[in-house]
Amino acid sequence: MNYRREIDGLRSVAVIPVVLFHAGFQQFSGGFIGVDIFFVISGYLITSIIIAEREKDTFSLLKFYERRARRILPVLFFVLLCCMPFAWAWMLPDQMTSFATSIISVCLFASNFFFWGESGGYFAAASEEQPLLHTWSLAVEEQYYMLFPLFVILVWQFGRRALIGAIAAIAVASLLLAQYGSQNFATANFYLPHARAWELLAGSLCAFALAGGRQYKSNILSLTGLAIIVFSVFAYDQATPFPSLYALVPVLGAALVILFGSEETIAARLLSTRPMVGIGLISYSLYLWHQPVFAFARIRSLTEPSALAMGLLALGCFPLAYLSWRFVETPFRKGAKTTLLPRPVQILSAAAVTALLFIGTGFYGLSNGGLQFRLPREAQAALAQERHDPVMDTCLFDKGEASLPHPVRDCLTKHSAGSKTILIGDSHAAALAGEALRVFDANDADLYVMTHSACVGFSGFYVSSPKYRLRCNSFFTGIEDYIRKSDTTTIVMANRWSLYLDGTPFDNGEGGIELLKPTYVDLFDRVGEQARQDDPARKARVLKQYVADIQNYLDAGRNVVLVYPIPEAGWNVPELVAKSAMTGRKKLEFSTSFERYLQRNQAVIAAFDAISHPNLFRVKPSDFFCSTFIKQRCINSVDADRVFYFDDDHLSDAGAALVVPALLDAVRTIRERDVGPTLVKK
Fold it and tell me: What is the pTM of this model?
């Protein structure tokens, strides 16, 4: 087939938005559609080659796979090799384990399946620290390269029309699956080939339309194609279901440019300029380099790198791409015409051996807990506190269990057959539970723990999270029924009160932004209304119901130990301390703004302060964390051995140890004052 400069120019239109999107520039919120353009281009070029060689009766599967190996593998292996020393020096053990597994999956052409299972989704913040995340698209293409030529050979014998019809039918089926998958299993839909095949096959259909040297020229259609590609880059974002019918826009745009953007058109002249063609030529190398560069920068930095830093790194990817194109891509791609592994069996054998070496290296990276021995003692000590207390595995429920065999033995102090004191709430309460059970047990005080993930500790609420939407009401209806029927006299309650009220994940204002989707609650009798997170009326009624539910317990004659909001960190504290230790930092004390805490929680604090009752006892975690170690700061860690959180908001055992004595004091005060209630059954 004849070389088309405008196709290289189209590659630059594809790769630049991808790079800028991954760099974090929100103006290019739909930059991920560049991958879809690459799919169309690949389908077009590969099918054009196959058609041309089939018509000349010169097509060879061995030579086809050889060309693909020369094109894809040498520079891919080179980038993998360059990643390894940075992974060794900078990655935490969990990151190393994931990276090592991703190396194995890349070499097996299966990284799309790996990242489907590994991440919270392509757009999840944690994915930004995956150096090989972008190889999912290479895996999709490689799977296409493996299967499509076999499909063509099999169906071609029934004639070209039959082949074109089969390709069109599969493309339509794939598009329909993508649309269905975007609504029902979005992560799998994004990564897996069944939802991407139609994009590659769209390129294949373009190849058949242009086979035999046919050309179509249309300034209007080719410029329209460019325009709708650009539209997608700026109009789409992470909330756009993708791939789905929305993907038709950039795919159609690429197809219009390929079909109607012959060299005489305005679109072709724009795409054929030297800068556009130059970037297009190095686009594969640029695509390979950009994600590892960005990911390692984020891994190395204690907080998200600045926009300036990411912009400079993006620019730095261009010379890297040029050098690898010039000295790795080009020599190997032309190897069949020179002396660099000129025979197919040589390049394929070399690729297989190299892949096996990388796979072996990957398995080594999986050993010894992600090569934990690489880390200094301080980093290992900090990460040891990243493990939550085992009590959370037992006493933090998540399925809305309405009927439990109370009391659950493992959620009760060891010396007790039952307890008049119960700790209820969400995972913040559960994070206190292990330390609380030990301390209460050591002091001959009874305690029973019943908590549920992502739930305010009362019935009568639903949560915005689809997973827990109805479970919270079910679980706490059961708990409240148990409290009414038992001899429980004291309720200790701890929750992420402000998160459920406001819905916004915590941002500490210093680079620490919690990796959580907006999560908020509303009254259960409004479950069908879909209240907005920012609705002031929702917030007002939720806060009013907080107070009413607390007051209900008090009015029923029970004691309430009310735990005010626990300070959130915003960044993963053990990892922050460990990363700091790995960079040689001696001072491992971290903290966040007390003022930020007060701003975040002012509505809840004011509402709780306004409750007045002799059976109400207040525990304010801010008294222990804020302006104690450091003035006007809330402490996250003192050193590697005193890390007060096991992630970005849950207290570690060391953090819980600061709060639990106050809970015990409150329960003791209740017992000593003998304000145990005359129970009023509801």
Answer: 0.87
